[in-house]
Amino acid sequence: MDDSTAHARVTVDELVRCGVTDAVFCPGSRNAPLAFALHAADAAGRLRLHVRIDERTAGFLALGLALRSGRPVPVCTTSGTAVANLHPAVLEASHAGVPLVVLTADRPPQLIGTGASQTIVQDGIFGGAVRLATTSVTAGGNAHWRSLVGRALAAAMGAPPGPVHVNMPFGEPLVPGPDPAFPPGRDGDRPWTSVPRAVRSAPPLPLDPSAPTLVIAGSGAPELEVAAPVVAEPSSAVWPGALRAGPWLLDTIRPAQVVVVGRPTLHRPVQRLLADPDVAVYAVADEYGSAWTDVPGTVRAVGSLPALTPPAGWLDRWHAADESASAALDKALDDPAAPAGLRLSRALVAGLPDGAALVLGSSNPVRDVALAAAPRPGLTVLANRGVAGIDGTVSTAIGAALAHGGPAYALMGDLTLLHDTTGLVIGPDEPRPDLTIVVLNDGGGGIFGLLEQGSAEHSHAFERVFGTPHAVDVAVLCAGLGATHRVSAVDGLTLPRPRGITVVEVRATRAGLREGHAALRAAVRDALREP
To answer: Does any domain span residue 200?
Structure first.
């Protein structure tokens, strides 16, 4: 067996021994040894292989698989610019704590800097975004290859978890020749090096347990049981039991102290609250060592959450305000003139079956769910909130659906769909998910109309450089890419049980979006003023 073939086969074998169940591969010449090794493992039923032609799509597909499963997922590319196309997914995985394993084939070291085709300096290309960057050299042999895989996966699942990069220079020949004895592992199918997952503990926060306390739960927050009101983002584990109208109430009721769990990024009222010098802010330490969130620099201590015993009536006050605000929201959202994204989010979340996964696109969709949908149990809600980009959302949703094992849905805007249309390009021999993608098509970038640049004084430039209108026919796009297409209205939204990939297009307009949100804020404010 030639060295490159043995190197690739042992690497894939050890990945499987260490618990890898899915791998994503992009075709190339220099990564041919890995292509044959992954194909053989898939044919033997040892892992499930997903082949994609676009490296950026492949990176986010692997990220979606890892995000939902919690297991490390390798994505493998050839050399050159193919590696650079993984950078967006690596950045998201780094900031979101997702165990993405980047395997990049490379030219032998002696070809670097010689002008050889598809050759760049790949070592260190991802900078500080990866938990480990290393090179698996062909000359290392069986023990080196296997122990390095164990070290890479330990870093990917470490404290904190995140992406790792293993660069693999392959010399020719790149295709297998005669097939002598396979370099063995040891102890059956156990990993070469068994590494326990590290967790961290922290002392209790030095807060006043009896003070009027509010918990702010951002993306990634774990399940909590607290005797305090909770304002949670949809991609936190505590969202099902959180206040429905919490984001609308933050300028109305002021706590004495706030406890931050996870990474809150969605709401400006949250950031204003955390920046208030009259509010004591504390952060709950992450068990895997991720950095705590503290944008305004006001966190007084980081630690574990002690039992809270806020004053009598504190929790009741929040629940009463939540009930009044929710009733006002629902009344306002029943008006067909209310913002379509908020109305769609409310209907979608309420209509999903128990056991479903829901992937939320960045920009407006995740915020619309947070502002309008009633939190409920029975859903797994996921979102790319690490760096909160719209790129790769289709592929992330497909990966999450493939890992979920039940009905899966996604909600995104039209620009998010268009940014990752290659995510819908799935070969005829590839595993296909059952996924319904709900797309709010308002012909451009709706979120900018809600920001400062959407104010009237900037209207002369807004539509071209922020609204970014397009003339894409989503039905024709889906037909060309092999996805089923349907059109639905917000009222009477129909959600077929996912079978294959279906895009449900909900057409809307961006006109009046800014005014619509202002009217909702006024409706909530008026409801809270009533005796």
So the answer is: no
